[in-house]
């Protein structure tokens, strides 16, 4: 056999090997461990979650509510979406998952995905979807996925004055013992007016409105003892009525300070919550605060 024939045979063998390898998929894109568990292309299409007996729905005004009457904190909903987006499959598991949270995700109001999430610790979570069980994780993070998919009343938005510079319509602050300090603010034309103020301090108005959403309560609860011992016997230090472009954000609240504690009572829902004293100080101002001609601002 001549060297030329040997060379041709060698070349042909290499071609055969190359052709064989061309049919082998070395890509890892389709392997289970490289797939997103929930596999939702556009998270913005999600309109509802059913989790462990709770229904979490997106309303037309953009709010997310649980069980139709609990406004949810944006950060809690954000954590939920982050988990849906980032949960990855590590490897397939042979047996199904017995425990865990049952999850149904709605796309455009249609139930599309049904899954189950169970965590044994911050580093061991499992998911089941389409009849197949997997070990799952959020890459680079130690999180208990089952806890993230565990909605409760603690998910409630605890912001008392849910408003913004662009949506506040009216803010009425009435002091019981010092009515001369009352604040009546409303949006008129292109800016806000305050009763009794001829020249508005726009910086003070902006500072005040942007501070309102920072006022948060602790635990909201119907406390009959508070109503009987306090509301029925004492007038509040002040009453605040706020009206927003989003009607669901309208609120009326009575403020009751006692020693080092400040309580807020909501007559429409009969709920009580405690407020941080530093936060409420930024709300309890007088109309003079908005007066550009106030002598104290010239010092």
Automatic annotation (TrEMBL):
Annotated keywords: Membrane, Transmembrane, Transmembrane helix
Transmembrane segments: 7-24
Domain of life, source organism: Bacteria
Protein name as annotated: DUF4340 domain-containing protein
Organism: Flammeovirga aprica JL-4
């Amino acid at each position: 056999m001549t060297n030329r024939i040997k060379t041709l045979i060698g070349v042909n063998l290499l071609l055969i090997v190359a052709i064989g390898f061309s049919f082998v998929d070395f890509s890892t894109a389709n392997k289970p461990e490289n797939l997103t568990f929930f596999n939702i292309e556009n998270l913005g299409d999600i309109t509802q979650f059913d989790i462990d007996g709770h229904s979490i729905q997106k309303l037309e005004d953009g709010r997310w509510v649980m069980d139709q009457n609990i406004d949810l904190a944006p950060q809690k909903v954000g954590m939920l979406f982050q988990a849906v987006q980032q949960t990855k499959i590590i490897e397939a598991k042979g047996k199904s998952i017995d425990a865990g949270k049952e999850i149904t995700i709605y796309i455009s109001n249609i139930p599309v995905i049904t899954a189950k999430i169970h965590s044994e610790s911050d580093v061991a979570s499992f998911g089941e979807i389409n009849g197949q069980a997997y070990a799952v994780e959020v890459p680079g993070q130690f999180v208990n996925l089952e806890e993230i998919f565990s909605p409760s009343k603690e998910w409630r938005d605890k912001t008392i004055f849910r408003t913004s510079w662009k949506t506040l319509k009216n803010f009425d602050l009435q002091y019981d013992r010092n009515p001369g300090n009352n604040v009546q603010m409303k949006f008129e034309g292109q800016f806000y007016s305050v009763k009794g103020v001829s020249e508005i301090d726009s910086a003070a108005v902006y500072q005040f409105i942007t501070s309102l959403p920072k006022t948060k309560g602790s635990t909201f609860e119907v406390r009959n003892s508070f109503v009987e011992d306090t509301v029925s016997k004492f007038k509040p230090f002040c009453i605040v009525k706020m009206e927003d472009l989003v009607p669901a954000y309208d609120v009326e609240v009575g403020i009751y300070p006692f020693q080092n504690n400040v309580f807020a009572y909501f007559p429409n829902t009969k709920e009580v919550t405690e407020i941080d004293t530093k936060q409420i100080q930024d709300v309890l101002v007088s109309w003079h605060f908005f007066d550009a001609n106030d002598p104290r601002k010239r010092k």
